[in-house]
Predict the structure.
Amino acid sequence: MRTQVAIVGAGPAGLLLSHLLDRSGIDSVIVETREREYVEARIRAGILEQSTTDLLREAGLGERLGREGEEHRGIYLQLPDERRHVDFVDLVGRSVTVYGQTELTKDLGRARAAAGQDIRYGVSGTAVHGVETDRPWVTFTGPDGIGERLEADVVVGCDGSFGPCRAAVPAAAKQTWQRTYPYAWLGILADVAPSTDELIYAWHPDGFAMHSMRSPTVSRLYLQVPTDTDLAAWPDDRIWEALATRLGHGQDGWTLTPGPITDKSVLPMRSFVQQPMRHGRLFLAGDAAHIVPPTGAKGLNLAVADVALLAPALTALLTDRNPALADAYSETALRRVWRCTHFSWWMTTMLHQSGDPFDQQLQLSQLRWLATSRAGQAGLAENYAGLPTGL
């Protein structure tokens, strides 16, 4: 097979990139290890920055998002004795939208199917070759057991942490930074209407908790737990009791309403950055290049920001033979990556218990400052609601 851009990975980054390229007349083929049903069912992020929603609407992908997404003006910061609202719109003129990544992936998949996009789901043995040449190629085995070779002008890795593209960059040509946090999240989905109108981020001596949501009838909640947590040790009643304690059930008349838990999982917390995000004719986007802990709601939004830079860069490279944007892609993208990595680290270390009493007092001091300082709240709002694309 022959195409202009070979995209490895059919998650939101890969699908959105193919959509934007198609609008500019650039042909692409996507290869994906998982089946489409699995890709569209994965439970992932649910908070979209304003830059993300703006891009989706501009790209003609905002119809269901506009109908079903829930715009939020801000978040709540919860301490054991008070809850303070941080209003992003009032502070920086930008909001966020609650819209599950599963729903966004479905929207993208349907749009690409309607456009006749060539997507090879359920492949195996994917490998990237010749990225230091002008004619790289991707090999894989299809679901029918037949080996395939996909030749391209450019290969883009949107295949996450464990895909072949990150590893295809030689060790001598890259630098990596990483941090593994000494705690995890126990995340649940519950078939119950959210007990809050906007997200609650809670600091508590027992550990962090968060109340999020996926829709008017589905709640998403998290508890800080040890990294070696066994889900069997957390029956539903224990989960709801811990959430009620940490989120302030009964404070100022607020109540947490429990409901049937439909999904439980333990999420590790880590940061990872690999640079550069380009090697020869191989470009990396999303989790293939960087991972952030979920506290700052940045993972999906960073992937979209990467693609927003990469699509015009590849269009200029392949249509106009102008390499300037492609040459600048890694450096430009990494500015935002490191800003979001720092913000995610800041939110994580400010809200999670480390077991150190000194750290605890620093956290309380910082949170009280945020509760009373408009300047501090504006910094949080600017980062959480998202910087403009390209910054």
Q: What stands out?
A: The chain has a mean pLDDT of 95. DSSP finds twelve helices and 20 strands in the chain. The longest strand covers residues 175-190.
